[in-house]
Amino acid sequence: MTDKIKNILNEQIREEMYSSNLYLAMAGRLESWNLKGMSNWMHIQAKEEHNHALGFFYFLLDRDEEPVIPAIAAPDLSGIKKASDVFAAALKHEQHITACIGKIYELAKEEKDHALESFIKWYIDEQVEEEANAKEISGKLSLVGDAGSSLYLLDQELAARTFVDFIPGKTAA
Ligand code: OFO
Question: Could you tell me the residue ranges of all domains in the chain?
Answer without folding.
Answer: 3-66+92-159
